[in-house]
Structure formats: structure tokens, C-alpha cells
Design goal:
The chain is mainly α and 459 residues long. It contains 21 helices and no strands. Keywords: Membrane, Transmembrane, Transmembrane helix.
Amino acid sequence: MEWMERTKSGETSDPEQPARSAAAVNTATTATAGRPGRAMTTFSPADEERRRGVRRMKATATGLLLLVALVYVLAKWASHEGAGAWAGYVAAAAEAGMVGALADWFAVTALFRHPLGLPIPHTAIIPTKKDQLGVSLGEFVGENFLSEEVVRQRLRAVGIGSRLGSWLAEPEHADRVTAELATALRGALAVLRDSDVQAVVGEAITRRADAQEIAPGIGKLLERIVADGGHRRVVDLICVRAHDWLVLHDEQVLDAVQGGAPGWTPRFVDKRVGERVYKELLRFVTEMRDAPSHPARGALDRFLTDFASDLQSDTDTRARVERLKGEVLGRGEVQDLIASAWTAVRSMIVSAAEDERSELRLRVRASLLSLGARMATEPKIQAKVDSWVEDAAVYVVTTYRTEITSLITDTVASWDAEHTTRKIEAHIGRDLQFIRINGTVVGSLAGLLIYVVSRALGA
């Protein structure tokens, strides 16, 4: 209990420590002034049993003191009555035993209260120095337990990476972690308000779209598609659908052509012109559908190639695409679509988290098992995990060391001094009574030895 000895003696290893200790005590005293102790106010059944043990040991030590006092009185009486030289030896041993017993009684009692109720200086150490003891204990813990070297050494000896890996490699443990993660995920999604998340998602997508020009990327993609011939299937589909539509809607085409003719032309001429236009249009679409090398297809390829180049290099084309992008993103329908995406994703995640056989949970479980197996067998991964844990623990203890030690200081300062003294005495008082007993015995032996040496030298 080095910190107790330093506190009692007033010694410190740091010249600035007394000032820090006094400041901490004043802070703790100010924080607790005007209010009673909030803790250490009751005795548990175990504490009561310890107090009974202390009382028994006090009675034993006091009884031993009375015994040596009686022996001293009898030995002095025997010596006065001429009993012989042995009485002097016994009296000397008993006298020294009384001195040792009284001195140790004073020392033990001075820890907890004023001996005989007398306000002797440097007595009642625990009740009067309680706050300073709390400060010293907090500094002791901070210096010896919350240092970076101690934390790293202890965590490195534990081998968290290896142990965690072996634990995760067990299927039942992986199942448990997966279930806990699913519960935490559902809880997090339940706490989040859809409106807030939708606003954040919408703003993020819009900001990202506004910050990045899309025309060059679209141009590169279109250029690659045309070069690979990926657009031809789309052209084939359009030609097939156009041909089928023309076959099914011939009357509508004829009506449209005839309706656009001038009013002064004869009706039979309009009909012949409409039939001719329809047949030519149907022929053109059919040939384009059936002939991969049709000139119109080549013209379309050249148009798409030129358009892809303009998207990447032409300033006006890129500006038009950007304006179109802004108009599209600004439409309410698009914003509603972005907002509704979160609702769909959230529902999907919740359903997957609740279903034990969902792909999400199965993949998480498999990943945990794989991670556990690798952590249990691969030293590199173990070292990484150990390093992460050490860095996190060191950050906590170095950043919040003052808060941690102040918890000890403030807690001790909030205790009631008298009750704290009785409780501490209940825990260590029984062992302290052995000091009184040992003092009696050792004092008697020392007194006897001194008397023997004195008689021998005197002879």
C-alpha cells in the first residue's frame, strides 16, 4: 500500500503532486459540500460478520495485553518477595510486552479514530485524510493501471485475436452473433425516421449528380456499346416492333396520311397516296429488319458514333445534357422515386434480418465462420486484430484517464467519513489486530533479550 504510506507521510515522488492533490481534494470537497454521503451508508450481512470478527480479535489482543500486565504485576511482586532472579526476567519481558502492545494499539487505533478521544496530531488518519486518500488512489490507478505500456502489455498477453477467432469459428457462436447483429440492425432501422433518411438519401444523390458531369461518361459508354455492336439488338427489337405495329395499325396510318392532304385534292388521290406511303414505309421497315447491312442501319451507327464523340468533346452537347440532367432531377416524380427507394430498401433489409434462412443472414454467418477460422489460424490477422484492440483501448485510457480517475476521487469524496471508516475497519481491522498481538509477543521477546544482555554486561 505504497500510496497509503506516501499519503500518511506526506511524501510524493513528484514535486508538483502535492499541488495537484490539493487541487483535486478541493474540487472533490466543493463538489460534495452541503450534501450527505451518497454511498457507503449501509452494512451488508457480510460486513456485519466482519465487524463481529474484528470485535473478537480486539478482545483477544486486549486480553493478551491484560495478561502480560498481570504477569508483570505478579513478577514484580514475586521479585519483591525474594522469589529469585527469574522474576526479574519475567518482569522485563512482561513490561516490554505491555509497551509493544500499547504502542501498536495506538498505531492501529490512530488509523481510524483519535485514541481515547484525544485530538492528538496525525491520528484519525482515514476519516480526516479520506479525500486525499481518494486522490492518491486515483493517481495510483492512473499511473500504474491506465498507462499505455500496461494496457498494451496486458492485452497482448491475452491474445484477443486468437481467442476471438476460436470463439467465432464455433457454429453456435456464429449463429448467436448473427442473431444479435440482426436484432441490432432492426433496432437501428426502427429508430431512424423514414423522412430523415429519405431527405439525406435524396440530398446525397442530388448533390453527387450535380457535382459530377455525366455527359463524358455517357459518351464513353455509348462509344463502347457501338464499337461492340451492343446496340444492334435494340435496333432489331425496334424494327420488329415497328413492323408488327404497322401491320396491325394500317388503317390508322392511312387515316393519318389522308388527313394531312390538302383539302382541294380529290379523295381517291389521297387514298392512293396514303396506300403508297404505307407500302413504302412497311417495305422500308421490313428491309431494315431483315437486312443487317441496310444503309439505314449504317447511318444509325454513324449517328450514334458521332453523338458519342459529341458527348465527350462538344461543349454545346455537354451543356445541353447537363441542363437536361438538372431538369430531370428537379422534377417531383424523380425526387419521389429517390425517396421511395429507401422505403423499399428498408423493408427488404428488415425482412432479410428477420428471416433466419435469408440470404443476408446466411452470408453473414458464413462470413463470421470464415473470419473466425482465419483469425484462429493466421498470425497476421491475429496481429491486426490485437493491434486494433490495443489502439482502441489505449485511446480510451489516454483520452479519458482524467475522467476515469476522477470517478474514483469523486466517489471517495462522496462517502460519509465516519461510516467509511467503520466499513474499512470491518474489512482490514481483523488483520490489524494481529499487529497488536505480534507487538505484544515481539515486545516481550525483545524486552527479555535486552534484560539478558544488560545482566550479562553488568556481570
